[in-house]
Specification:
With about 300 residues, the chain is α+β, with helices and mostly antiparallel strands. The strands form 4 sheets. The chain has a 5-stranded antiparallel beta sheet with strand order 5-1-7-8-9. A 4-stranded antiparallel beta sheet has the order 3-4-2-6, with helices on one face. A hairpin with a 2-residue loop joins strand 8 and strand 9. The longest helix is centred in the N-terminal third of the chain and has 16 residues. Helix 1 runs antiparallel to helix 2 and helix 6 packs antiparallel against helix 7.
Length: about 300
Amino acid sequence: MNTTEPPPEGPPVAIEWGGIVEGRVAAANDVLAAAAAMSACGGGAFACDVQGGRFSLISRVTNVAGGDFDVDAQARFLAALARLLAAAQPNSVESTLRNRMLYGDRVAETLFTVRGAAIEPVTRVRPRQPGDGAGPTDAAARPAVGRRELLLLAPLLLGAGGILAWQNGLFDRILAARADKLALDTGPFGALLQVAIEPVFGGYELRVRRGPDYPQDPAALGRLRDGATSLVARAACDAVGDGGKAWAQVLGDAARVRSATAFELRELLARPDGAVVVRVPGAIDAATIRLSLTKDEPAPR
């Protein structure tokens, strides 16, 4: 992937926002004024709450049209974000604010990081994919132009800090796909188990519980095992009955396993209403969370 590619010229066709900026207030009126200035830049409205000497700022909407968010508007947005930081107490601001700007056939993904007393956008540009959301697709991507277009979306991954974050997977986790867009697949466990998912910073939190077919006693387990139609299905019954190991896989493009996290099912044996909590890392192209008996191979059905 070419991480040195600058973003396309002109406004995006759509913008997806996520994350939050929060910190301690030095000048409350200046914080609110900076938030209002951000909302006036054409990239969507932002909500800022000031309570107990702290502030938090988030986008009011997740998806907005990007036609008004041209290069000049992007520069004004970055300046307003800098004003917000200046109105906070030094070294108190944390940011997970991020956006995904959709162009004709390109996507620019930016994480607004705090570095010392400044906000720095960390950006990568990649080809647009079907899972990147709706919006007009007839706006052609144009070649990059001068330096001012990079005020907001400078490809800072050339810097040492950006490269380190990329290599460690931080950028991938921060810009992870939204939890509510992921499919859930219990794999060979079928209705023996059920899974709920919640977003957490940098990934997803799974809660694995007993499913409707979970055996209530050894006799029921024996019947399930004897009725299994494959060795994999029988192994899944054994794992449930013994409180054994399973894996939570994060699948990306083309069902490729991006990560796999091991967990044990023992908690479900002792507590019918219990849950096994599994924390898995996020991925930009995450599409499915699937339970498996293996770490790397796709789970057979």
